[in-house]
Amino acid sequence: MKALPCEGLFYFCKIKTEYIMTTSNSSIKSWTQEERPREKLIEKGAASLADAELIAILLATGSAEDSAVSLARKILGSTAGDLGALSRIGFQDLCKIKGIGPAKAVTLLSAFEIGRRRRSLPTRQKQKIESSKDVFEFFLQDLGDLEHEEFWLMNLNRSNQVISLKRISEGGWHSTIVDPKKVFSKALEEKASAIIVAHNHPSGNLSPSEEDKRITRKLRRCGADLELPVLDHLIITSHGYFSFADEGILD
To answer: Which class is 34-116 in CATH?
Structure first.
């Protein structure tokens, strides 16, 4: 094959570059601002990145049809941009999104789980509980994103500092069975001076059910007999909480 003269080679490269720019799904400008989230994170910090850019870093690569950022936008679009809802998506549902295979799905699920564990228990121990909002913030990471009900126990010392958090039971979408004997045996093991209990409503409904009220009364009676008071019972959702103590309906 004959070599092109310099003028011809320059013209060929110019045509080739223009072709790439016009056929690509993003311009050079967007490559530097949107398609390079790693560089943006290094230069400006993680807080400067949009949700799609953070997800794109986890994905590492895009698909045949989408860049990593475009694919991340599609993933976010599957839950209308709701990160809480996205973190609750399972493996099979993630794999249904075009461009997401098992490897990408596993990476995303791992990141979601890290987010749920972001506040390790040692950093929470010995923190003092002064309001229902403090309790909500403790339990939110454990209960806020679940698609099934769980019932948890918070053990406190005499200064209302957190000794430990314990999962008591887990159930289905609508309910979980709570055994008062298990609640108080866990509290006595930890030498708690008082306890707070909490459970989640996956439906997002913050109103207590009649069963919620019944178990609260039962736990309060048991706690009074053992001189181990139940200070509050919270219902947790991803967007808020209901406190029996705040509402004056503990008894």
So the answer is: mainly alpha
